[in-house]
User: Which sequence fits this backbone?
């Protein structure tokens, strides 16, 4: 997880988002406004991490070779069985 750019940035942006969301609770906003205010500045870290998150190009577009390897038509042929 921590050996790729996507792994590191994924953890960083997830932690930033968790802190932002938890500090948005009404109890925190009213009682500890400074905590709410400063944790919401983590949006800068969140968006910088989001920009670099896809840098490793782990997920790629479909190509003819990848479609032959993974055989996506097998799922389409048995569409009626989805969800059973």
Assistant:
């Amino acid at each position: 997880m921590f050996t790729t750019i996507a792994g590191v940035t994924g953890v960083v942006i997830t932690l930033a988002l968790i802190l932002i969301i938890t500090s948005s609770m009404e109890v925190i906003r009213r009682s500890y406004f400074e905590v709410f205010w400063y944790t919401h500045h983590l949006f800068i870290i969140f968006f910088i991490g989001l920009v670099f998150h896809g840098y490793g190009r782990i997920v790629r577009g479909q190509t003819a070779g990848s479609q032959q390897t993974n055989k996506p038509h097998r799922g389409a042929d048995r569409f009626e069985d989805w969800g059973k």
The chain has six helices and no strands. The chain has a mean pLDDT of 87. Residues 78 and 84 are 11 Å apart (CA to CA).
